[in-house]
Amino acid sequence: MEAFNGTAVVNMTVKKLEPVLVHPAAETFKGLYFLSNIDQTFPYPIEIMFSYEGNGMGNENAADVMKESLAKNLVKFYPLAGSLTLGLDGKMHVQCTGEGVLFVEATSDCTLEELGDISYIDSKFRELIHYVDGVDSILNVPILTVQMTRFRCGGIVLGIAMNHILMDGEALLYFLKSWGKITRGIHLSVEPYLDRSILSPRQPPILDIPHPEFVKLKTKTSTPSDQESRVYQSFCFKPQKLQQLKQLAKEKGSVTNPTSFEVISALMWIMRTKAFKTEPHVTIKLLTRDLIEQPFSFAVKIVQEALKKVTDDYIKSTIDYYEVTRDVPQAENTAWISKWSRLPFYEIDFGWGEPVQVAPASMVWNFAVTISQRRESGNIILTLGFPESVMERFRQMMLLELEQK
Questions:
Q1: Using CA atoms, how far apart are residues 206 and 343, in angstroms rounded to an integer?
Q2: Is 282 strand, coil or helix?
Q3: pLDDT along the chain (405 residues), means of 10
Q4: Residues near 21 by Cβ (< 8 Å), separated by ≥ 6?
Q5: SS3 string of 67-107?
Q6: Could you tell me which residues are beta bridge partners of residue 236?
Q7: From CA 365, how far away is CA 180, in angstroms rounded?
């Protein structure tokens, strides 16, 4: 396994034009757009980059083409052209105004080769994103921004910043594939389904399933100082290493057919617990000292069982739980991990061919993602962030563990 420490790959200069608002190409619905209770629980910005070689094409007018097709796509995905607002019910909604999406044109003086492997997170890559920092509320974070950066070699990086409250990975994929088809002049055979009323709470709400993710624990992990800087790193799991972890997970006979995501999640969970120096008696949502003392298969089994619990009934119960309690998942002793590696991001084509790499440009605190390193690669990248002292322990333990033959 390899790790990258976040040092800039190249001295990259990016020149940006002033942002412009791309409005929907036709009149769209005006008014409030419903967001489900599940949407309310993860209102964080997500930033992701798509790197294209450009196929040697002249891309001088590519930005104009992209803005025109984006305007057409926003007619179909009209909530993205609005803004967040707080309703009388205390929940967030989208105020559909048709005001548009911020689009930034940019150029870089380097090549994609000089830029390096974007799957290894680096703060320098945020120059390829149009982001808004320092806002006092998630309501002031744009639902969607786009930056299109052309490189000296003719390559293009499309940087997307989205508000997760309206779009998760699958919704973003659907939006981008639709945008790509419109850009290439392909008619959309299926219109997007935007009605979220199916995710409304039941009447009356039914709290029939436990939800440990919402439970506030009385005990806490050993938490570093709030003044300590966060460090973000990426770790590369190669096919041979993933196979070794799967075999290790099956050794005690309690785990069958473990997936790459399951073994990566379990290993991250164990190493995170050790790196935070969590006391043996502390409950970390699902288990205590057993996580460290039991065989690796124990953690993988817990991950498998947790994934199996996420049924339609569980989702309905989650919606009802929030309706009654207005609780959100607790950050303390909690880490989220998302499986971007299952999403076919490499099918998104704007006319420059499929992307050569797709990767996050930044990470939300306490959030991790797995994503394929590049197109047609069996390598999976785990990217996550911890306080600096915790990351140093995590990195050392993770490398030592995965470098064992």
A1: 32
A2: coil
A3: 46 94 97 94 91 73 95 97 94 96 96 94 94 86 96 95 92 96 92 90 94 69 64 93 94 90 94 81 56 87 92 95 87 78 93 94 88 89 92 91 75
A4: 99, 100, 101, 102, 103
A5: HHHHHHHHHHCHHHHCEEEECCCCCEEEEECCCCEEEEEEE
A6: 2, 381
A7: 31
Question: How many C-beta neighbours within 10 Å does residue 32 have?
Answer: 13
Alpha-helix runs per DSSP H in 184-295: 239-250, 260-275, 290-293
What is the C-alpha to C-alpha distance for residues 33 and 174, in angstroms, rounded to an integer? 19
Does 349 participate in catalysis according to the annotation?
A: yes
Beta bridge pairs of residue 372: 380
Which position among 117, 168, 327, 349 bears the catalytic label?
A: 349
**Residue 187 bears catalytic tag:** no
Task: Tokens for 299, please give them.
Answer: 């953690």
pLDDT of residue 161: 97
Place of tokens 């044109």: 105
Which one is catalytic: 89, 164, 226, 281?
164
- Per the CB < 8 A criterion, the answer to whether 371 and 380 are in contact is yes
Q: Tell me the C-alpha distance between 249 and 270, whole Å.
A: 13
Residue 401 has a pLDDT of 77
Angle at the Cα of 116 from the Cα atoms of 348 and 105, rounded to 5 degrees: 55
Residue 197: both structure tokens together: 């009323």
pLDDT given at position 329:
77
Residue 217 three-state SS: coil
C-beta separation of 159 from 52 below 8 A? no
Question: Computed over its alpha carbons, how large is the radius of gyration of the chain?
Answer: 22
pLDDT of res. 143:
96
Closest Cα to residue 260, out of 173, 169, 379?
379
DSSP letter, residue 288: S
Torsion angle of C-alpha atoms 275, 1, 51, 102, degrees rounded to 10: -10
Comparing CA positions, the residue from 149, 148, 150 lying closest to residue 68 is 148
Question: Token pair 């690796």 is at which residue?
Answer: 296
Residue 19 and residue 12: Cα distance in Å, rounded? 20
